[in-house]
Each structure stands twice: as C-alpha cells, then as structure tokens.
Design a protein that fits this description.
Mean pLDDT: 93
Radius of gyration: 18 Å
CATH topology of the largest domain: Rossmann fold
CATH class of the largest domain: Alpha Beta
Helix content: 40-55%
Low-confidence stretches: 272-288
Number of strands: 10
Largest sheet: 6 strands, parallel
Bound molecules: D-glutamic acid
Strand content: 5-15%
Number of helices: 13
Shape: globular
Number of domains: 2
C-alpha cells in the first residue's frame, strides 16, 4: 500500500490546456507526484470524432497503466465528454473526468449557464446533461469555439485578432444574458485576461480544473491513497515536439520543464478487449 501511495497521478490533455489542472494540483495536492502527458502530435482534439478520441484515450491510459499511475485525471473536456464513460471500467485505477465537477460547481452559482467548449464537447451536450440532471430548471447554452485552441497553442494570446475572435464567440452568450460562464475546455483558462475584459463583471466564471482537483483529493483520501511524503518532480511527456511544449509552458508554470518525447502503445480497435487494457474493474468512484 505504501508503495501505491507514492505512485504518480497521471494527467493528460492534447496540449497545454491540462497545465491549468496541473497548477491546481500544485496548489491543492502539493505532495503528489505527477505524470503529465500532452498529445501534441494529434492536437486539437476538439474537431475529432468520438472513435478517434476513444482510440487516443485508450492508448494514453494503457501507457499510463504501464507507467504505474495510481489515478488518472482527464485534464481534457473533450476526452471526458466523449470517452470517459466507455473507458472507465477498462482500467484498474480511478479515472476522473472534468465535466461533472465543473457542472456541480456551476449549478451552485447560477441559473443561466453558458459553456464555451471545443466543437466536439459542445456537440456532445455533456455539460447540458450533467447540469440539468442536478438542476433541471437551469438553462444551459453551449458554444463550440473552434479557433481558441489553435490560437493558444500558437501562443497568440495577446494578439488583437484573438480578442476579436473571443468576442465573436462570447457574443451569443452575452446576448442571452448568462449569469455564469464555464470554461468547458481546459485551454480556455489561458484566455482569462481577454475573457474578463469582454464579459460584464457580474458573470461568474467557473474553472472546472479547480473542482476536478478537489474531487481527486476527496477520492484519494477515501481510497487511502493520498501521499504525505515529498513528491518527485513532475515528469512531462509529449507525442510531438518537446522543445515547443517546454517553451510554451514556461509562462504558465513559471519554470521551463524538462520534456520527453514518448511513443504511445498502438492499440488496434478491438484490442481494448484484450488483456493489457482490461486489467480490472470494480474500482469505486465517488467523484466523477
Ligand atoms: N483542452 C482540451 C479540452 O478541454 C482539448 C482541446 C483540443 O485539443 O481541442 O477539451
């Protein structure tokens, strides 16, 4: 058990969006060791089909399982919306999605809830479903924002063009007088300064990254898996260019990470039924 407690928490995203979750981990769970993976060779995820996302997520989780993680946080709304329910029972560690913690936080704050998300997440209506299950009288308006992730990954945060693009996609939400806005993509928190300039100050902003990490903390405690020793430095891995990821991440991490390029195991479409992935089931889930 002691050995398991000190194992890493796996965190993954298509790119730098998951750093918003990683920052929360550093704040709320500073004693945990983290394995961060960014699938930069295949981003953006938000325009992909469900079968592609499922394939990618299974590859990532299989690799993380080989690396011996004790828990995985999907720091990616698109993966949580399109793959979480399907893959959760295929692995022997708890897997937390980001959508339910975000929805739970939003219903406490508002009634007319806007969600900005990738096209795939918005189309799935995962936030609408999660919110209306908890609060049927809430109104949810989900808007897909295809250019946001490319703008962030190209490091064009402070460009005037970015401000115009963000304004355009927020407009329908402002026209409907939302009282709460959810960052339905982990990348979008990186646009916080631009978004705050555009929306009226009374609109409450919900960052699901904060709430998924709180849920992870609860689950670790409940499972007796919380680490109380000194953690190892975060291991950063990518499928694309390590130097590019290191350069872009520095502004959010406050340090330049050492980044490794790794190759994920290739899983054929039916391989998830084979032994490697289907290690166990029956892991209790208390959060999402
Ligand atoms: N950051 C991810 C999300 O929360 C994926 C964005 C993308 O690659 O399109 O959905």
């Amino acid at each position: 058990m002691l050995q398991k407690i000190s194992q890493k928490i796996g965190v993954f995203d298509s790119g730098v969006g998951g750093l918003t979750v990683l920052r929360q981990l550093y704040q709320q769970l500073p004693q945990e060791s983290i394995l961060y993976f960014a699938d930069t060779a295949r981003l953006p995820y938000g325009n992909r089909s469900q079968s592609e996302i499922l394939q990618f997520v299974r590859e990532i989780l299989t690799w993380m399982s080989i690396e011996g993680v004790k828990m995985v946080i999907m720091a990616c709304n698109t993966s949580s919306a399109l793959a979480l329910e399907k893959v959760r029972s295929e692995f022997d560690f708890p897997i937390l999605g980001i959508i339910l913690p975000g929805a739970r936080a939003a219903v406490k704050l508002g009634q007319k809830i806007g969600v900005i998300a990738t096209p795939a997440t918005a189309k799935s209506r995962a936030y609408s479903q999660a919110i209306q299950e908890i609060k049927p009288q809430a109104t949810v308006i989900e808007v897909g924002c295809p250019p946001f992730v490319p703008l962030i990954e190209q490091n064009r945060l402070n460009h005037p063009h970015t401000e115009r693009v963000v304004r355009y996609y927020l407009q329908p939400l402002l026209a409907q007088e939302i009282d709460t806005l959810i960052y339905g993509c982990t990348h979008y928190r990186h646009l916080e300064n631009v978004i705050r300039e555009i929306i009226p100050p009374q609109i409450r902003l919900v960052d699901p990254a904060t709430h998924v990490v709180t849920a992870a903390m609860r689950e670790l405690k409940m499972l007796g898996l919380k680490n109380y020793r000194i953690p190892e430095p975060t291991r950063f891995c990518v499928s694309g260019c390590p130097e590019k990821f290191a350069f872009l991440s520095k502004q959010w991490l406050g340090f330049t990470p050492r980044v490794e390029k790794i190759s994920l195991p290739v899983i054929s479409e039916n391989a998830q039924m084979d032994s490697l992935v289907r290690i166990t089931k029956n892991v209790p889930h208390f959060g999402e």
